[in-house]
């Protein structure tokens, strides 16, 4: 028994130092005996959840002072089990006898219990699980979203399959509501998503990883927010689309699904391993219209004839990932704070990192805009920072004139959470981009959509052969050096540090033509 708890203490210590994840340190840890793994995983998770109150009890009872050999990490799992576990200490788990520490904790059982009772009384709670902070409770986990893979099946077939299995279909929430209805927290229930037609929503603890429809690729388990970009870019059947930073390919296969597996989706990623995963996952999803290439998107020549008809581009480049809610990470963060081991990234580092990411994100968008037939480009991140979202959009609007922001009515108009206000964008522009937040029951996310201005006058440029190409805009000619572009255009382009009064109004001055502020695709 002692060896089991000792090992739990070592794992907690490593977690506080952020040496790995809960799963890798328990289930995936070769030093944990196979027969202990599940128990170890459960003990660690539960200890993390209750860490605040356990630390308080250990301190109050002076356990650290009373035991010379034990540190906080060794004591925590023991105190957890003696107070919180239904069966108390796990005597049946083999491995060594009773050490001094175990004996001490057992001998102090009644004091520890009365300490717990006092805390519960002080906090006014009746059940122990109410001591777990709200955001770490099981029932507050995010909903499970199931995307129907239209490349292989239909919504009707999938709904019928679940109903035949005994799942009950509830009414969806009204369109203006970001969260599914409350009533549906019961197991074996689901609703049709009220914003995305190819999405089903299941209660938080539903696990469909072994479900036959998941195993055969008819459904994809994908967070709702991550399903927004493909809907926003909305590639037409039989068209040519491109996913610039595609792996592991959830959004690529989503575009393929919306195209009914017709046309072509070019999928780029510069990471070979991740691209291999994309190939495996999109093959499982039955997508036969995807051409996957291991290439830096910034090195792809937009004027290569094979991409001349690419109209839809989905850009989901690397970002800080600050919107991703990982419950296990939250548990560890909470635990590290409780044991006084906070290793948060310092402000200056963070700012520099965001600046680097934002520069890269702008480059990716500007490069996508060079594709001669591009007419609709979505840009998304799973970040909550303005620097990677609204500010990137503002910089791009300030650096070129060929693309405008699509209007709200063309960017999931029924989705209520829109962009954050910033002096760099007009109100209308902020309203035409979308955000998702953990408050909506999903990861933090941002999506914007650029559409080509149909009235942008074609600007003559030197094509590869040295002839003047009247049909290609200046931005599409990647072989034209930047200084040449400036010379031909006669304008100097800078990142706007001031709010663009309106992208379109700048353009009106140039073309002396009246046009709407934003363009409908
Ligand atoms: C946020 S992930 C994309 C997730 C993907 N869209 C999905 O939904 O499954 C960003 C990806 O961009 C790739 N990447 C980063 N820079 C790139 C570049 N310059 N060209 C191509 N891929 C790039 C990374 O390797 C990573 O796989």
Automatic annotation (TrEMBL):
Q: Which GO terms describe its cellular component?
A: nucleolus
Recorded superkingdom = Eukaryota
The active site is formed by 382 (nucleophile)
Q: Extract the signal peptide range.
A: none
Q: Where is this region: Disordered?
A: 462-521
Q: Which InterPro entries match?
A: MeTrfase_RsmB-F_NOP2_cat, MeTrfase_RsmB-F_NOP2_dom, NSUN5_7_fdxn-like, NSUN5_RCM1_N, RCMT, SAM-dependent_MTases_sf
> Is-annotated flag, keyword Amino-acid biosynthesis?
no
Q: Name one GO molecular function term.
A: RNA methyltransferase activity
Q: Domain SAM-dependent MTase RsmB/NOP-type, which positions? A: 134-453
Keyword list, A-Z? Methyltransferase, RNA-binding, S-adenosyl-L-methionine, Transferase
Which GO BP terms, alphabetically?
rRNA base methylation
Query: Which annotated residues bind S-adenosyl-L-methionine?
Result: 245-251, 269, 316
Q: Name one Pfam family in it.
A: Methyltr_RsmB-F
Extent of Basic and acidic residues compositional bias: 481-497
- Where does the record place Basic residues bias? 505-521
**Where do Polar residues bias regions lie?**
469-479
Q: Please report which protein family the annotation says this sequence is part of.
A: Belongs to the class I-like SAM-binding methyltransferase superfamily. RsmB/NOP family.
User: Mind telling me what this protein is named?
Assistant: SAM-dependent MTase RsmB/NOP-type domain-containing protein
Q: Which organism is it from?
A: Mycoemilia scoparia
């Amino acid at each position: 028994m002692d060896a089991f708890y000792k090992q739990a203490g070592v794992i907690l210590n490593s977690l506080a130092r952020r040496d790995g994840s809960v799963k890798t340190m328990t289930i995936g840890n070769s030093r944990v005996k196979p027969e202990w793994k599940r128990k170890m995983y459960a003990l660690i998770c539960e200890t993390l959840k209750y860490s605040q109150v356990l630390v308080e009890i250990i301190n109050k009872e002076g356990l650290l002072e009373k035991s010379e050999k034990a540190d906080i990490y060794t004591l925590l799992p023991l105190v957890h089990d003696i107070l919180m576990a239904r069966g108390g200490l796990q005597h049946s788990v083999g491995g060594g006898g009773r050490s001094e520490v175990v004996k001490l904790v057992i001998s102090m059982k009644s004091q520890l219990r009365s300490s717990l009772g006092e805390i519960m009384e002080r906090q006014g709670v009746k059940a122990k699980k109410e001591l777990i902070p709200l955001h770490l409770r099981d029932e507050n986990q995010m909903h499970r979203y199931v995307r129907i893979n239209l490349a292989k099946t239909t919504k009707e077939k999938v709904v019928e399959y679940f109903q035949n299995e005994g799942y009950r279909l509830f009414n969806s929430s009204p369109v203006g509501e970001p969260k599914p209805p409350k009533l549906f927290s019961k197991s074996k229930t689901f609703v049709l998503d009220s914003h995305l037609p190819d999405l089903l929503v299941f209660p938080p603890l539903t696990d469909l990883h072994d479900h036959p429809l998941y195993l055969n690729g008819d459904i994809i388990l994908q967070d709702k927010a991550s399903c927004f970009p493909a809907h926003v870019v909305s590639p037409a059947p039989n068209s040519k689309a491109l996913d610039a930073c595609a792996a592991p390919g959830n959004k690529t296969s989503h575009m393929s699904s919306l195209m009914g597996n017709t046309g072509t989706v070019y999928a780029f990623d510069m990471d070979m391993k991740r691209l291999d995963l994309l190939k495996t996952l999109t093959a499982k999803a039955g997508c036969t219209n995807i051409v996957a290439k291991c290439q830096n998107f910034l090195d792809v020549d937009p004027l290569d004839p094979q991409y001349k008809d690419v109209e839809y581009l989905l850009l989901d480049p690397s970002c800080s990932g600050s919107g991703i809610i990982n419950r296990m990470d939250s548990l560890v963060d909470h635990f590290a704070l409780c044991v006084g081991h906070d290793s948060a990234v310092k402000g200056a580092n963070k700012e520099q990192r965001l600046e680097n990411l934002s520069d890269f994100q702008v480059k990716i968008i500007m490069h996508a805009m060079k594709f001669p037939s591009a007419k609709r480009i979505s840009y998304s991140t799973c970040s909550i920072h303005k620097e990677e979202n609204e500010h990137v959009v503002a910089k791009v609007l300030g650096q070129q004139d060929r693309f405008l922001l699509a209007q709200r009515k063309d960017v999931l108009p029924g989705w209520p959470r829109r962009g954050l206000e910033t002096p760099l964008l007009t109100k209308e522009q902020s309203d035409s981009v979308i955000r998702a937040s953990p408050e909506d029951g999903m990861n933090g996310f941002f999506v914007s959509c650029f559409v080509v201005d149909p009235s942008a006058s074609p600007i003559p440029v030197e094509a590869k052969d040295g002839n003047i190409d009247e049909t290609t805009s200046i931005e599409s000619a990647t072989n034209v050096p930047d200084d040449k572009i400036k010379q031909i255009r006669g304008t100097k382009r800078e990142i706007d540090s001031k709010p663009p009064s309106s992208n379109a109004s700048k353009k009106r001055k140039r073309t002396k033509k009246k046009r709407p502020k934003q363009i409908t695709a």
